[in-house]
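Aim 2 progress update. The chain analyzed this quarter is reproduced below.
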Amino acid sequence: MPEPAKATWPPQTPTPGRRPEAFFTVRCVPPEAPFAWVRAGWRDLKRSPSVSLSHGALLAMMGILLHIYFHEQPAVARGLAVTFALVAPLLLVGLQEASRRLESDLPVPFAASLSAWRSNPAGVWTFAMLSALGAEVWLRVSAGIATLFFPATDSAPGPLVREVIFSQEGYEFVVVYWSAAALFGALAFAASAVALPLLLAWRIDAMTAIRVSLCACRRNPKAMILLAAIIAALLGAGMLPFYVGLVFAAPIVSHTQWHAYRDLVAVGQFPESPKGDNSAR
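Predicted structure tokens:
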């Protein structure tokens, strides 16, 4: 597999007159490729610790606030979850900007990482709004599942947990709830796996980036399932010690996504003939 070319900067616009997604080719990678992406993400964290850990600390603070309000004021927590889903992509794209700069042997000032979204504001903000919409949909679906199984139970976490543990419907609720969570998580991962790095590097719209990301998952199912499992493990471990681990886990995940994009997506003038054409469709 050829080495990816150096990332271009400033962000480029695909050739006029062609469908934007036809400008990108999704490579097939070995199933074990995510391990190399994670190692590269860890190297980026070590090379830019101040920027990486400061972004990680901001994301960890979001998690801590959600945890506090989830138990104290669930209604406030719901609003915070949607707000954080809107803000998180802006922080994550800043971490990927750090990876881009490190790849090009450029300095990584904190201000540049915070303003990285300005390279493609329409695309990044649209993606952020879609992220917030997805969070709102999931919150409504999860609340609906809880109401379906326990209509007479308070929606607060304590009473609901007691019902799940001690009622006959608890097992069915767990199966349905986590099946729905797995489905939503898989869709969210497939849509976002390489979307933000694409939006950072190219002036394309959010839907084009999502289509390329979905294509990357479709053409590399084993590698992307492994990547999703690694990301879930990192973020899950980061949440265990009261979200403090997210200070390290979130930057590693975001840097890893940049290296996944660089390995998975090639850019250039490719034939539009269906025969042998690997462009993302």
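The CA atoms of residues 83 and 130 lie 12 Å apart. The first strand starts at residue 24 and ends at 26. These observations will guide the mutagenesis experiments scheduled for the next reporting period.
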